[in-house]
Amino acid sequence: MSRGRRRLTKALVVLGSVLAFLSVFAIWIERQALNTSDWVTTSDKLLQNETVRKAVGNFLVDQLYENVNVNQELKSLLPGETKQLSGPISGGLRQVAGSGADQLLQSSTAQELWEDANRSAHEQLVSVLEDKGDAVSTSEGNVSLNLGSLVTNLANQVGFGADLAEKLPPDAGQIEILRSDQLKTAQNIAVAIKGLALLLSILTFAAFGLAIYLSRDQRWVTILFCGIGLIAAGFAVIVARHIAGGIVVDQLVVDESAKPAGEATWSIATSLMTSIATTVIVVGALFSVAGWLGSPTGSAKASRKAMAPILSDYAPFVYTGLALIVCFYFLSAPTQGLRSFVTTLIVAGMAAFGIHELRKQTAGEYPDAHFHEAFGRTKDRVVDAVKGANIGEHASKLRLPEMRKSDGGEGAASEAPTATTPGNDEDARLARLERIGDLHKKGVLTDDEFAAEKSRVLGSDTSAS
Hints:
Layout: H1 3-34, H2 36-48, H3 50-67, H4 70-77, H5 86-106, H6 108-129, E1 143-146, H7 148-158, H8 162-166, E2 174-178, H9 183-215, H10 219-252, H11 259-269, H12 271-293, H13 298-313, H14 315-332, H15 337-365, H16 371-407, H17 410-419, H18 422-441, H19 447-464
Antiparallel strand pairs: 1-2
């Protein structure tokens, strides 16, 4: 490549990596802010966290005592002079309500109410942001999370009674999510984010695709660096999430006692961001593997040689397997609309193109590679290995008496009388010659091995004489 083409290729890889970094944040905001199912799943995780659950419980108790004069209500219920005890009793009930709120929020009933409240609030929020409903307008009304039913349940559980719970005002337990004067701005941001997530995803792969196309004979290097760029982008998102968490919690949570709950909330709410970043890292790893497979390194050549018969004879099965994997991923992943569908198609197309190029490369390097020949060679190697092991075993058995003689052990002592007896020694040599002759006829011993064993036996005869 020319110097200008190389520089353009490098610039496109860097640009694609930066776009991948930004697209993770855009996708996270789109899914977390505009997808009700993802939001409800996150809210369930929030309530299961002990720190967050304790903070929600304290909020419910505060709402109960702020909206109902518990001290006055107790005075009206206590007889005679015991009315003076309404203050201490009210304080004691507040402590009881704090522990009771945590138990309440762990119950299945409270968790269903929490989920319903979050689902209703988020559906209302999405309806407003997408300008699909009339429940809230940009001129009046707010979007709120209504936890009034949980406050009422807490009052009943602590023992305040239904009468006291009924005195709670309608706005008790309301958490404001969005004010009416903020709705117009929020609508514009929602439209921009929704389109930006799709645009950034497409531009990321477009930059990488153009860089790979311009690389010509050095495409494996570009693919490798595209993978490294995606991996770097994924890890950069994880680091940025950690840094941003401290800044966001410090800016939004003023009360120091509430900061642990704020940190837990940020960690849970951004867990989806980590999941998206992990997906980017995995895709980057696949790019890196693809780049290595196309490289001229020895390990890559050995891998291509091993894969060549399959790519040559079973290409339709390879493409079918790829299609099944992509379909499984798209069907099993949460539905995210057009962006997810387009991204999946782009990744599948690049994978199919990579397999096509790998087939061309292996066909040029190993044109005669076929699966049945590779299987036959493997079978021959296994048979030769087993045959060689049997030959070595038989040869060891033939040499065992001589090894015992050289060691001077019991074998040598037992054979000493026969060595001094010419008749017995001659019979033993003839028996050994017949044995190796039989092994040679059966193919266990080769011609060279048979000649060597025969010379060894006859040599012992000469030395004995």
